[in-house]
Design brief:
Helix content: over 70%
Radius of gyration: 30 Å
Order of helices and strands: EEHEHHHHHHHHHHHHHHHH
Oligomer: single chain
Shape: elongated
Strand order of the largest sheet: 2-1-3
Largest sheet: 3 strands, antiparallel
Number of strands: 3
Strand content: 5-15%
Distance between the termini: 95 Å
């Protein structure tokens, strides 16, 4: 996709200039003609490429992006407007009034203005990349070309609702363990820095021999307190280093690979990624987009660089003339069950249908796994937290127990 500058005249003879994003100048001319404009000049805006790239990067870092849930709600409302026959501008203004605040609400208000000015809805959406990604725009453009925009928007709303649902389930499965582990770390630091030193002072005054377990914990406490600045600085540096690494493609890819392989949660992440991939690929193919273009768009929807790199390999193989399923199997990144369903769909000419069925299957798998994990993880976390805190507390009270035993034995001897 590239930026193009254009000069055109409307029906009144007024000269208009502007910029559009497209794959070729022919596409830009066709879109301008669809708006009722007479095209005078179209040229690729090479001088603006660097600025456009910089703006895109700035948007990725600074612009608040729309949530999947908000975009799903807007898509459902837009589908209702299109199906009801309400004029698009009037419908968009109504949606803008009801959308409240946030990136989607601001974008919808601008959509109404741009469409009223004569732009197509896809061009209007293209001005808001933080809200409408390339996959969404391609679907809308496919609907405009085929005259089935209302059906495409319904499919998009169904797709986004399912994606949001599966993301919510995965997030709920991982939130509780993260919270418990954070609590455990903070509680351990509190005991090491505040409680253990108090016992240490008492035992020093008594001057008695301490059990090995108690000596180990006291030594850990002394080391942490003596190097508190170093420990805190090291932890802060580690956090900064991790976040900095995740800002690089290599670091992010490593993290995505770990997500797929980590124990307990790895299968959940893998199934959710496969579900998003299959559903997105299916809806793109079903909308009439070419396979190669669909592969380009589905990379971002997978939300995992390991899978995205595998899709790049698939695209190269398909472009060279290999079969779709054969190309996916050669990467080794996709499960056999998905590949078998794809092979069946490819042979029957119903690849999109089989992809949607496989996505439904993975959705059910994620739901079942999350449900089972939720009932299992709570006792596991209780054992972990109790074990760590209990270990520290027991080590501090062992000398007291020893003193009590000594006093009992002394009384018995008397």
């Amino acid at each position: 996709m590239a930026n193009y500058s254009y000069v055109a005249k409307d029906r009144s003879g007024a000269e208009l200039t502007g910029f559009l994003t497209g794959s070729s100048d022919d596409e830009i001319i066709q879109r301008l003609h669809q708006q009722g404009l007479a095209v005078l000049h179209v040229a690729e805006d090479r001088r603006g490429q660097a600025a456009a790239a910089w703006k895109a990067q700035a948007a990725a870092w600074n612009v608040r992006r729309a949530s999947t849930r908000d975009l799903a709600l807007f898509s459902r409302q837009l589908a209702t407007v299109l199906e009801s026959g309400i004029p698009l501008v009037k419908g968009l203004r109504g949606l803008s009034a009801d959308s409240g605040r946030g990136p989607v609400a601001k974008a919808v208000a601008d959509l109404a203005t741009r469409v009223e000015r004569g732009e197509s809805i896809s061009d209007a959406m293209a001005a808001h990349p933080a809200v409408f990604n390339s996959m969404y725009l391609s679907m809308i453009r496919a609907g405009e070309r085929a005259g089935t925009l209302d059906k495409i928007v319904v499919e998009l709303s169904n797709y986004l609702e399912k994606v949001d649902d599966i993301k919510g389930k995965v997030k709920s499965a991982m939130t509780y363990p993260v919270f418990i582990l954070t609590f455990t770390v903070l509680a351990t630091l509190f005991l090491i820095l505040k409680i253990v030193p108090t016992f240490s002072d008492i035992y020093k005054e008594l001057g008695q021999d301490l059990p090995a377990l108690t000596r180990v914990v006291l030594h850990i406490s002394d080391v942490v307190r003596a190097n508190a600045v170093l420990v805190i600085g090291g932890m802060a540096a580690l956090v900064v280093a991790v976040f900095a690494a995740l800002r690089t493609r290599r670091g992010l890819r490593t993290w995505h690979a770990l997500q797929l392989r980590m124990p307990i949660f790895g299968p959940i992440v893998t199934k959710s990624v496969m579900s998003r991939f299959a559903r997105t690929f299916g809806i793109l193919i079903g909308s009439g987009l070419p396979i190669l273009e669909s592969l380009d768009l589905v990379k971002g929807a997978a939300d995992n660089l390991v899978v995205a790199d595998a899709i790049d390999e698939v695209k190269a193989k398909v472009a060279a003339g290999q079969g779709v399923t054969e190309s996916f199997r050669a990467t080794g990144a996709f499960p056999e069950m998905l590949l078998q369903l794809m092979a069946t769909g490819e042979e029957a000419g119903e690849l999109d249908t089989m992809l949607n069925k496989s996505s439904d299957f993975y959705d059910r798998q994620v739901e079942a796994t999350v449900h089972g994990l939720s009932s299992l993880i709570e006792p596991i976390m209780i054992v972990i937290v109790g074990g760590i805190i209990g270990f520290i507390v027991l080590s501090m009270f062992l000398p007291i127990f020893g003193m009590g035993d000594a006093m009992i034995k002394g009384s018995a001897a008397m």
